[in-house]
């Protein structure tokens, strides 16, 4: 992929803003397209006055917004999406519109344009559903997502593959484990910190607490993206991106409490649904086989527990700095 002028959809969000930071430090020209529904300008404030950076407030559901942003770009990192798996339980249109329709509009804009022929898509481990093989390799099948979020991500992968083969695009698909780090605005670590700020003596844990998943620190995630993109050879390349182990929810709760200096926290488990899951569509065990990416020389620097601990430290520091700034 040619890394000249780059479009990052969802570039003001959690993962997107970290990706933007790395691209800028590498000397690229970067255009961010974001509707700021979950991202914030604060996440990319460092770059707003840089001559190599352009921010476009726009929506992937509006083709004209895409056209204005993608002109002159040679590669797009497509991260814009509904970021929360749980929303699909109460609003079934969100994943369809924000993930599938948005991706279709982006691909159509690429097809009609002349410059952008390469796309790197941020997919999800949820496309595997409740996999029978753990760790789960990229060629596992059949893929049976159990959430609308997972289904929409799989649909996006299929669209990208179809467009790549029919119209000559180059594409890389990264199936992410749970990514954690600073600027995250949802997920179990964020939720636990918020809950313990409200009540330091009691913590509600969704499900039975035994849910066990792979967590990857944001720095490792961004490095993996670049390794994947720079080494892609096929028309459609798929890579799992995760850590080399997993950690359960009760361990995460313990880490959060420790980092917050809380020693006597009563854990209340809701019991969950469908055998202890946190919510409908929750995958209780997730652990990706990352050997394909490791063969390219990439290896995560932190394991799951370390990634969680680094994230808690970072989030608490962010919150403290925000208080100081507010004063």
Would you write up a description of this structure?
This protein is an alpha/beta fold. The protein is 38% helix and 18% strand. It folds into 2 domains: 5-180 and 216-241, NAD(P)-binding Rossmann-like Domain (Rossmann fold), CATH 3.40.50.720; 188-213 and 245-285 and 302-317, UDP-galactose 4-epimerase, domain 1 (Alpha-Beta Complex). The protein is built from 9 helices and 14 strands. A 7-stranded parallel sheet has the order 3-2-1-4-5-6-11, with helices on both faces. Strands 12-9-14 form a 3-stranded mixed sheet. It has a two-stranded parallel ribbon with strand order 7-10. Helix 5 packs across helix 7 (249-259) and helix 7 (249-259) packs across helix 9.
What is the highest CATH level, the class of the largest domain?
Alpha Beta
Strand count, sense and barrel status of the largest sheet are: 7 strands, parallel
Unreliable stretches covering 5 or more consecutive residues: none
> What class do helices, strands and sheet pairing give?
alpha/beta
**Number of strand elements:** 14
Which helices and strands occur, and which strands form pairs?
Elements lengths: L4 E5 L4 H12 L3 E6 L18 E5 L5 H8 L4 E4 L14 H20 L5 E7 L23 H20 L2 E7 L1 E3 L7 H11 L3 E4 L6 E2 L1 E3 H14 L4 E6 L5 E2 H11 L6 E4 L15 E2 L4 H4 L9 H23 L1
Parallel strand pairs: 1-2, 1-4, 2-3, 4-5, 5-6, 6-11, 7-10, 8-13, 9-14
Antiparallel strand pairs: 9-12
Helix pairs in contact: 1-6, 2-3, 3-4, 5-7, 7-9
């Amino acid at each position: 992929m040619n890394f000249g002028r780059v479009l990052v959809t969802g570039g003001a969000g959690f993962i997107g803003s970290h990706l933007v930071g790395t691209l800028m430090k590498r000397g690229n020209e970067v255009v961010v397209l974001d509707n700021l529904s979950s991202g914030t300008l604060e996440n990319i404030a460092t770059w707003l006055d840089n001559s190599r950076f352009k921010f476009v407030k726009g929506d992937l559901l509006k083709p004209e917004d895409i056209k204005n942003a993608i002109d002159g770009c040679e590669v797009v990192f497509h991260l814009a999406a509904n970021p929360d798996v749980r929303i699909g339980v109460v609003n079934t249109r969100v994943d369809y519109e924000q993930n599938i329709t948005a991706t279709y509009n982006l691909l159509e804009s690429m097809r009609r344009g002349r410059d952008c022929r390469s796309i790197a898509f941020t997919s999800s481990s949820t496309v595997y559903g409740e996999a029978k093989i753990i760790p789960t390799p990229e060629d596992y099948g059949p893929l049976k997502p159990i959430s609308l979020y997972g289904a929409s991500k799989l649909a996006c992968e299929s669209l990208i593959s179809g467009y790549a083969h029919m119209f000559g695009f180059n594409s890389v698909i990264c199936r992410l484990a749970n990514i954690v780090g600073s600027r995250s605005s949802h997920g179990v670590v964020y939720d636990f910190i918020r809950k313990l700020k409200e009540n330091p003596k009691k913590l509600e844990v969704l499900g039975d607490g035994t849910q066990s998943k792979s967590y990857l620190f944001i720095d490792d995630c961004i490095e993996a993206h670049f390794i994947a993109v720079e080494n892609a050879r096929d028309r459609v390349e798929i890579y799992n991106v995760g850590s080399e182990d997993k950690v359960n929810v009760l361990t995460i709760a313990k880490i959060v409490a420790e980092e917050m200096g809380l020693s006597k926290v009563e854990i209340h488990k809701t019991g969950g649904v469908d055998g202890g899951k946190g919510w409908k569509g929750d995958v209780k065990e997730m652990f990706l086989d990352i050997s394909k990416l490791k063969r390219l020389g990439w290896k995560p620097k932190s394991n799951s527990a370390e990634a969680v601990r680094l994230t808690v430290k970072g989030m608490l520091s962010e919150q403290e700095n925000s208080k100081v700034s507010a004063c």
